[in-house]
Each structure stands twice: as structure tokens, then as C-alpha cells.
Amino acid sequence: MFCLFHKWKGSCKCERCGKTRDKYHDWNGCVCRRCGAARDMEHSYTCGVCTVCGKRSSAEGHTYGEYPKRSGQYAVLVCENCGYEKIYDDWDSLVDRLKSEIRSANEAGCSVPWAEDLLKHMIM
Ligand SMILES: [Zn+2]
Ligand SMILES: [Zn+2]
Ligand SMILES: [Zn+2]
Ligand SMILES: [Zn+2]
Questions:
Q1: Tell me: the pLDDT tens digits for 57-94?
Q2: Which residues contact 64 (CB under 8 A, 6 or more apart)?
Q3: Which ligand is nearest to the CA of 57?
Q4: Which of 15, 47, 95, 112: disulfide with 82, CB 3.0–4.6 Å?
């Protein structure tokens, strides 16, 4: 079909002939719901892959545990889903968090060896 005057109705897709224009998209994150156009922003990453458009970005969208684990001489955050490791660098707040974790465990009569181990390693 061919239109002389497209019927855009404030959208990116002509109602009559289905022609699209690069305006007034109905974005669902990185992809337009109406015409399927893609943009390189607001991706929905899960473990490094955008679930909407398939774009890859290895460091994005992982689900890290609350505390880092030791990995050699580094502390790393490990993704609970795929095991991706990210170097942990928020040292100052981590020391405080570990200390309060250990303190509250001790108050409850427990111990948290992994936290003590990590803390010892970090303070050195
Ligand atoms: Zn048209
Ligand atoms: Zn569109
Ligand atoms: Zn995407
Ligand atoms: Zn992951």
C-alpha cells in the first residue's frame, strides 16, 4: 500500500501503510515496542546480555552477593547466577561493614570466619 499522506497519529509508524519514521518511538528500554527500532541505551542486562535486544556488555547486569569473597590477593564480588567476578574496590565501607557483621555475630554468640578472614586480609 502507498499513502500520499501518512497517518502518523503522533507515532513512529504509519497506521495505514506501516512505514516507519525515526521519531515518536514508544521505547521499551532499548527497543521500540511499535516498530522494533533499537537504540544504544537503557538496555536490560542480565549477566552481560541485554534480554531485549541481545547486546553484550560483559560487566553489566550481574547479581552480586552482599559481600566480596577473596580471590588470590583481591577481594571480588561474585555473580550468584553465572559466577562472573568483579574486583571489589569500596574498601573503606567494607571494613566498617565487616566489623559490624562480626560484632553482631559475636553478640549473638556466633562467629563469622569468612568475615574475619576477609577483614584480616584487608587490614594487612
Ligand atoms: Zn503511510
Ligand atoms: Zn518506533
Ligand atoms: Zn538492549
Ligand atoms: Zn552474572
A1: 999 999 998 888 877 777 889 999 999 999 888 777 88
A2: 77, 78, 79, 80, 86
A3: 3
A4: 47
pLDDT for 73: 73
Segments making up each domain of the chain, as ranges: 1-61, 69-123
pTM: 0.67
CA of 103 to the centre of ligand 3 (A): 43
Per-residue CA distances from 19 to 11, 13, 33, 108, 117 (Å): 11, 6, 15, 67, 63
The rounded Å distance from CA 67 to ligand 3 centre is: 29
